[in-house]
Amino acid sequence: MGWDTYNAYGLDYNETVLKVNSQLLVDLGFRDLGYNVIVLDDNMQLRQRDADGNLQENRKNFPSGLKKISNDFHAAGLKFGVYSSAGRYTCGQVAGGLDHEFADAQWWAGLGADYLKYDNCYNEGRSGTPKISYDRYAVMSKALRDTGRNITFSLCNWGDDKPWEWGGDIANSGRISGDIYDSFSRPAPQCPCGPDEYYCQLPGGGCSVMNILGKAANIAWKSQKGYWNDLDMLEVGNGGMTYVEYKTHFSMWAGVKSPLIMGNKLNELSPQDYAILINPAVLALSQDSDGSAMVRRRRQSVDDKDEYGFGEVQVWQGGLSGGDQAVAFLNGGNNTRTITSDLIEIFGGIPTEDKAAKTWRVYDLWGDATMMSNTEAGRILNGTLLPAQASRYFNRTEMSFEEAIDRNMTSVMGTYVNTVGAFGSISAEVPRHGTALFRLRPVKSQTRKRDEL
Amino acid sequence: MGWDTYNAYGLDYNETVLKVNSQLLVDLGFRDLGYNVIVLDDNMQLRQRDADGNLQENRKNFPSGLKKISNDFHAAGLKFGVYSSAGRYTCGQVAGGLDHEFADAQWWAGLGADYLKYDNCYNEGRSGTPKISYDRYAVMSKALRDTGRNITFSLCNWGDDKPWEWGGDIANSGRISGDIYDSFSRPAPQCPCGPDEYYCQLPGGGCSVMNILGKAANIAWKSQKGYWNDLDMLEVGNGGMTYVEYKTHFSMWAGVKSPLIMGNKLNELSPQDYAILINPAVLALSQDSDGSAMVRRRRQSVDDKDEYGFGEVQVWQGGLSGGDQAVAFLNGGNNTRTITSDLIEIFGGIPTEDKAAKTWRVYDLWGDATMMSNTEAGRILNGTLLPAQASRYFNRTEMSFEEAIDRNMTSVMGTYVNTVGAFGSISAEVPRHGTALFRLRPVKSQTRKRDEL
Amino acid sequence: MGWDTYNAYGLDYNETVLKVNSQLLVDLGFRDLGYNVIVLDDNMQLRQRDADGNLQENRKNFPSGLKKISNDFHAAGLKFGVYSSAGRYTCGQVAGGLDHEFADAQWWAGLGADYLKYDNCYNEGRSGTPKISYDRYAVMSKALRDTGRNITFSLCNWGDDKPWEWGGDIANSGRISGDIYDSFSRPAPQCPCGPDEYYCQLPGGGCSVMNILGKAANIAWKSQKGYWNDLDMLEVGNGGMTYVEYKTHFSMWAGVKSPLIMGNKLNELSPQDYAILINPAVLALSQDSDGSAMVRRRRQSVDDKDEYGFGEVQVWQGGLSGGDQAVAFLNGGNNTRTITSDLIEIFGGIPTEDKAAKTWRVYDLWGDATMMSNTEAGRILNGTLLPAQASRYFNRTEMSFEEAIDRNMTSVMGTYVNTVGAFGSISAEVPRHGTALFRLRPVKSQTRKRDEL
Amino acid sequence: MGWDTYNAYGLDYNETVLKVNSQLLVDLGFRDLGYNVIVLDDNMQLRQRDADGNLQENRKNFPSGLKKISNDFHAAGLKFGVYSSAGRYTCGQVAGGLDHEFADAQWWAGLGADYLKYDNCYNEGRSGTPKISYDRYAVMSKALRDTGRNITFSLCNWGDDKPWEWGGDIANSGRISGDIYDSFSRPAPQCPCGPDEYYCQLPGGGCSVMNILGKAANIAWKSQKGYWNDLDMLEVGNGGMTYVEYKTHFSMWAGVKSPLIMGNKLNELSPQDYAILINPAVLALSQDSDGSAMVRRRRQSVDDKDEYGFGEVQVWQGGLSGGDQAVAFLNGGNNTRTITSDLIEIFGGIPTEDKAAKTWRVYDLWGDATMMSNTEAGRILNGTLLPAQASRYFNRTEMSFEEAIDRNMTSVMGTYVNTVGAFGSISAEVPRHGTALFRLRPVKSQTRKRDEL
Description:
The structure is a homotetramer of 453-residue chains. The first copy, chain A, is 27% helix and 18% strand. Chain A has helices spanning 6-9, 15-27, 30-33, 66-75, 101-111, 130-146, 163-166, 209-219, 243-255, 271-277, 280-286, 343-346, 374-381, 401-406, 410-413; strands at 2-4, 37-39, 79-85, 115-119, 152-155, 173-175, 228-230, 261-262, 295-301, 312-319, 325-331, 337-342, 360-364, 415-420, 425-430, 435-442. Chain A folds into two domains: 2-286, Aldolase class I (TIM Barrel); 295-452, Immunoglobulin-like (Sandwich). In chain A, α6 (130-146) links the parallel β4 (115-119) and β5. Chains in contact: A-B, A-D, B-C, C-D. The interface between A and B is medium-sized, with 30 and 26 residues.
């Protein structure tokens, strides 16, 4: 969890941008919710290396020097993230790490880096089989380990050569698609692979939220503790989607355990978007210790397409620690609709599945119990209220999500909706492009087990 | 033929599980039918190697030690099968064999291993062309031969990089798909390649019986004596399919010569499922010395789809030793139907095919003559009847299937149905998701050959 | 051009088979038409090499020894062709040439080999990119050249890894598909790639004539002098197709410049099939010095499908030496139909194409002028007439096709049909599964050229 | 920008051809517009190398020697372009550069070469992954740099192995498809990959303008300053397309920043085609310093298909320097139609896009203001008028396009059409197979910015 410069600032960010946003990560309570990495994305180094072959800081944008920035982050309880590409250049055409892995890793370690996002541009054609790509990225993995510093390694090779097959051997997360675009379902010529294509030969960019989510559906199960499928950064707050769409985006990224890296301008956040990003019940689902990504249980085409021709309803489910379950109803149609799904479908379509025969209490993760009010959110944003004083804010440094769940704390559990019996159904009215997101908790059986009879 | 821990126990099996099931392999007569390998699947070793780089036993689960277990198996006339992955770790994340092949093979040989199932997880990206995968698996093949011990080598790389093209050079069988799931036709997001995709880029898992059978259809003819296409373990007895579906599953796995490895809990077998697994006529087909896998002769979409949208009728045929033929009618529709196929279709759709002009006696392999009654099966399972005392049990250690066929022994030949003349048809009423399975025997011509005229 | 043991005899051929067929190649006049290579296909060597690593003759089948057979062939004016596989074994599981290329080439040269068909079985996974396959086959190419003997090199890797891209660097021809089957359009499970798939991942076998022709359509233009696309052997005479279908098969193989290798039993040829194979006008088209393969100009789906669901009309065209043109109308529908095509379509669909504005004389290559009568053919087959005495037999050793064309010899030119003017059309009534095959000869313009005005 | 022998002359060009066309490049004013490279395409060298392994000139075609020709070009202010293939032979089967890169680069440098077009024929199978192709082409890139001479490197590997991923590391442009054919939309069997296939396994040749443009759509955004997607040479003037179609061809090649290399006979140019090629407004778009390729914003199937079955409407947009925009409406239907698109669609379909909210002045790039009259063009072609004397001719050596735009020079800006307000629409009547091509210039806002309020 953290924040990255790229989506909102592209190559044009500087010391001031970092100062403003890092301060807000702390002041708005993001850090204490777990958003504690700041990634300096493309353009932190120069195109030319120095005489010794080492990277050189972009002093124009960072006149105080990167070490000072890193120290400031650490002093503020934040982590310092860096970026490069497993190529001759980065995508922004400054010096890339290919064939300089060990020097660059030392350089970053010297700066106090805690995180590396490692891209795929200008890779000198070193792709085409999993082995070729693995070999290229594995060098940096070793280089990072050799520094002796604990640096999270985030593969950004766009799903090329199936990182879900091998990323877990060398990294902590791996992108699965071309870059995200701040749109719910707009198709883009530069993102030609459809949401069904699990072996895309042109990942591209400009991919919509629904495009990326579709790609994630086939490989959601490949995610695991220690290696997460990365659906790319969050667009919440950037203005290209509606409030409802951003909630869907955030719900699904959390549900499939994608890293949650904000890509917005924190000083321009609206109260509504702020409330999305700090929803403790959704974050608890994302950070659940069980680590299981939700998988898609239904994909249903509907007739009410949106202006881009997209129209489908999806049902997702995933296990949580302690036997709880996450369930999402996604209305990708153009009209509000009631979505209903029974426990057999939710748990995989197998009538004999034990979980379908249980009784469950259903909690809504986007209800009043978990959502901060606009008024409070607005006051935090304008500095007249501290997060700790707001009624729905959750401070993870004081209490873990696990403990909050154990205590049945409403803002983390969600709003109780109803109880569904064995083989019963859950229904929800879901707006256009919206998502109903639930936590299900098993009700302990009151009756004797069959083998006790 | 044998039994494997994975489908029923996953990573959670131990010495007791092995003792119970190995004892039942003997007591229920499975061993004497040929089910004589027990495979200790994922989790028999630790994640860490010892100081010398050797594998370490999972002493927690196997306190008596693996050598003791192996000795006990051998003493009982059973074979000791082991498991690992051609990767850094196994799928269950204990130590894998990649780059440790020779040490590990020696370790297994020291334990008296007779069989190795070798998986594909955490393979460090060493895939993408047949050559890359071959090179990886061939090392273990050599390592096994170098031990001097006869160890059956079972490739488990999920059909990745087309093992049917090269597996025969180095191994005895090779998986063709992602892991099986105990369902007849349920689609699963983690098994995205459809039954038509013979070059799947994401084998996944959770694949249904019909999904895997479809994949087998394109490559059935690649199976050969000494290298078999492996459709994954049998789910018979695990409860996810109906009795009729399990008969289909067993019929087709036998017909395409997949290795028959049970994946159930032998102490929880129902009489019906037991009777399926010991049907001598079907086993004789599977173990026929001719070694030809059945090939699909018809694939017909039908309108009566099941709840998962699956609906097709299939006709399969394969040669048997001595000129006999195996024929299967699979009703993948949702209603009982009569399936009819003429000899031209059965033998490949060529009007001039000699076999279509012959006369054949038709034997039903699932009829009364071959199926043990529920009563007898139940008594064997509850220990009040020895298999040798039951009326349909066949002991291969006393008589080979070939000899039984030569003697026209009804329980192995099947139930005589009728005789079909030149260019005639065979019909059978087949229930939803069921299969009619026949042996055809040529009737010696009474008339003079044409060239005698 | 020649004859190969495989299609008619499989692995079961011997000295007698070779003697009978080689004698008939001479006696029936095939040799003097150019069918002068006899290929001893799979099973000429043993599975084991000798102590020095050399191949060993299959003495059981060839008791006189291969050298004697080769000498006999050469004495009869025939060439001696051999077979092996670029693998550990051949497809029939005798010793293959992989990693023994230089020794084996020497061995064949010692036997007087003139031709090598080199297969793709048991290749130890050395495939997956053009480079991997090229490297494997290039070794044998060099080994053959190193012998100093002129040995034609025929790649038989089934179109795997796109031999049309690289075969011309090292070989004389290259197969483009799985093995042919003696059927016009029957689909086969072991030939899953359809006729449109130019990048087939499972070439398989059992492919019908229409399946292979479809695959050839996309790469016909890759054929060139010195490297021919090989559509596999001729099935004419093997009984699985009708007379009309065999004429189509032969017409199209000749038109796309596939090597013409018969795969029949010459002692069982019918007069009709014999007359197909010796049609001098069609052979002149195949052997034309221009070397241009016909390309497909129309592919039109029709409603009258055959029993296998196949139904399409095709128009093909190719250039011949001296400005002549070959044109084929293929009726792949189930009923007789008139096929009409205008010169614009025939010459590529470009209205401004110069050739469409010319006037052409049209000659039918399957008319009376070129077809030997059944009576004469029958008498040749039963030995009561010498080919040289028959009225349509053409002896290429006495006169070249080029010279015959220059002399306007009717049996080689074809039967004159009519003259078609600028932008005019050609029509022909074509039976089910039949082909009308024409030679077009430009009429010299009588008018002054425009630039003379 | 330049001229290449291949499309009009194939392998049959010689010193005279070069003399005639190079003179016309100067005399007709092409050179001063930027068309200043002459590429001697396939057949400038012999098939055999000399005793030292060096290339040998084709003295038969170039009796004066290549050095003389090169010197003449340089003296005339033209650049000398050469051609070879990264293979054993070129496509025309003379000596290729593979494994001779350093010697050949020196040879070309010695001749004074300024440009290399480097093809993909006879590549010894060195393809199949980006890495294999990259490694092959990168050797020549280094060899060219090692000469110390500035030689533009033009990859001609037909889009094989995705040069858009790696070409920018080593070259200045890269072909994306099989060879172009002088037809708007004719399908060709040798160009089997459709316009949607961004990962084509058989690039082939004979590809129509619409086929290639479709392929470009998916990767247009991969084009960048210093590495351009090459859609192959211009067919304008070769007679296979109508005047309107040639304008479309030229518009789109310019818009996606393909290199503009003419492939015609300059001495046979019609006035109309000449006027297309020298249109300064379209050339200014092509050569804009911003370097952004247009991307496709709409692809709409229409019912009025042409004779080849093609029928679609497309809308494209791209940024230009100074905030201007290029917009193209392509009518690929069979009838004249009005095409309308609003600013939201034009700028990517995102309602919140800033550019959609601006006001724009619209200039037509094919209007009277930019098109030379037939009369004047005819007089230039027949030598009775100097280009400099004609009213629409633009001399880039006297003034840059940038300066002309700054000065609002009509022949470069285009014909003013109208002004479109925020979220407004642009409409144009576009003939069959035609294109309306516009430059949009933002109108400076008269109102205060919102943050000034």
